[in-house]
Write a structure and sequence with these properties.
- The protein is mainly α and about 25 residues long.
- It has one helix and no strands.
- The chain has one domain.
- Helices cover about 90% and strands about 0% of the residues.
Length: about 25
């Protein structure tokens, strides 16, 4: 269960980074 939560967190972080990256460029 903990591993699943960690994966979800990584996914959210990656999506957030991509969104911010698009905003910057």
């Amino acid at each position: 269960m903990q591993n699943y939560l960690r994966l979800m967190e990584q996914k959210e972080r990656r999506e957030r980074e991509l969104r911010e990256g698009l905003r910057l460029y």
